[in-house]
Amino acid sequence: MAAGISVVQSGAITSVILNSSDKLNAMSRSMWRELKVAFEAIQGYPSVRCVLVRGAGSHFCAGGDIAEYPGFRFDEAELRRFHEDEVWGALSAMLECDVPVIAQIQGVCMGAGVEIASACDLRLAAESAKFGAPIARLGFPMAQREAALVAGAVGDMTARAMLLAAEVFGASHMAAQGFLTQVLAEAELDAACQALAKRVSGLAPQAARLNKQTLRALKLGGAIENPYAYAASAEHREGIAAFIAKRKPHFQNL
Amino acid sequence: MAAGISVVQSGAITSVILNSSDKLNAMSRSMWRELKVAFEAIQGYPSVRCVLVRGAGSHFCAGGDIAEYPGFRFDEAELRRFHEDEVWGALSAMLECDVPVIAQIQGVCMGAGVEIASACDLRLAAESAKFGAPIARLGFPMAQREAALVAGAVGDMTARAMLLAAEVFGASHMAAQGFLTQVLAEAELDAACQALAKRVSGLAPQAARLNKQTLRALKLGGAIENPYAYAASAEHREGIAAFIAKRKPHFQNL
Amino acid sequence: MAAGISVVQSGAITSVILNSSDKLNAMSRSMWRELKVAFEAIQGYPSVRCVLVRGAGSHFCAGGDIAEYPGFRFDEAELRRFHEDEVWGALSAMLECDVPVIAQIQGVCMGAGVEIASACDLRLAAESAKFGAPIARLGFPMAQREAALVAGAVGDMTARAMLLAAEVFGASHMAAQGFLTQVLAEAELDAACQALAKRVSGLAPQAARLNKQTLRALKLGGAIENPYAYAASAEHREGIAAFIAKRKPHFQNL
Fold first, then answer.
1. Is ipTM beyond 0.90?
2. Looking at CB atoms within 10 Å, which of A14, A114, B5, C81 has the fewest?
């Protein structure tokens, strides 16, 4: 099977699967480009209510596809294009996605894997998962926007330990640092992620989009426009009416 | 008893009590306005050395008073006034308070409760306390400045889990995320908060105010004026003299 | 032995030792000035690959040398000079160091000790180490840039507990807050730090410098110049060639 990004739709939940399983889902350049396309497409479909990102097989993502590196990394312009257009193109499409994104992490989550997980909203991991970015062994630093994303998600100390000491951390460390919402036995991870995705899909979709837009604007030091325009919306009325009537709310797609 | 904010003075310690105990201390609009008035008054009394915020009865605060919501939330201008003037008016009065503020948290601490706790300096909780902001069930997002306050206090991941997945967390999770200073058995919470308030009240009051002003300025990207004007003050001299004389310092009110 | 900063070179590893062991390594004004000189010197030696900061004897650092305080702290201009030139001079020289810096922490790590540790990249501590900044007992606040450094490293809540309540924390609390990479039995601390320093010294030195410059620029809201100029470098080629050849990389000094 060719390496690539698989997108599987199931009701309101879209699964995005990193798929180069003979390489522990290492990201090739074409996979980065496909990941961008996948998230841009998701952003265009209002019926999607939750995205689940995972790796094919029993790993999340081992990093970049190093076999490709000698072909382009030693040329400054090509290296810039790789990081700024391909890698950041995909990561920024993930960050700009207005729908809640859950990372389902087992096995290795290294380098590119940590970056992709850092661009998700919620992260659930198997207790055996391993996290790191040991690129100091490969002789290169993390690109600036990728480092900002990762340091913001894993914390400054853990980012320095990963980058300066090639440290690899287990799931319990990453949970204590606020990187993981929940740590589960490997056998329970898939069911827990499916249940979470289903629960997220039943919550108010307009509120989710506004919350994500607000948190994104805060990181950039800005504000969203017309933050109270939702006042008279059907979704807002339904949520409050259902609560007062002590019934379950029914939130329509946008 | 009418719902409201009770303010109780005991020596140098002021207790601010959220009081609508038949509604688990849910915050009505008038309670938000009273909370603002209470903190503005505290700011004007130089003899106050520590503020303790708690709920009446066995809960901290269940959130907003939803029974009031149909009366104003569906009108954009009213909704803006509620969030920007009433809620943010109270929270910003808390944030601008120069005296150390301790939150004493038991039972539910949800929505408005998490916001109020986030505006305190120190947070002690009973091990049975529950934390969340499940407004995605109510069909609306968190207002921008409130979200910035909460995300800064609970961490980005926990804020997303609360807002996007309506997740509710226990005290041990919140302690691990740096939201709680200490977690105690419910029977020990009150005594621990009283002891902490007493200890804080015995420390240098001018130093506390300068520390709070400094940390506030840092969050806003600014700096305080004349940061070393305290050099020749009686408080500064007393602290150092007492240490060198190996006696307990005696710090006067400002 | 006179109080001072000892610098010991061993291969690619430089040890910087806080040395006033009869005062638990409390920092005198001259020690702050020597600490600045030590780090400026390290920055000029390209063969240094890792710095280890520790205290002489069985403590890290008890704080400032309070015996000196009556001689200068009550004069505003002198107080400003102390904080802005001497203390911040040393801490900023540490922060501007491009080589990975490890703090080896046992015993007391208080006030100036927490500030020095906060200026390191990685922090390993003995499980019996104690952390705090109880200057509220001494009648003065933390200076602004020092407070920003410490609050960024220990987290906002722990900083407030240290400054407003004179709280002292153990190593497990500090690890949970993301301040410590690792907590070890006291008998194992030295060997663990030596092993970590050796490992860091074997990693790509140019990548380490670029990572540190990038993380520093991010904190200041800026960016490094020519971030991809390393593309054709020997170090970059060696790291990737070694990985592909499944051999250990050999990174030359810069």
1. yes
2. C81
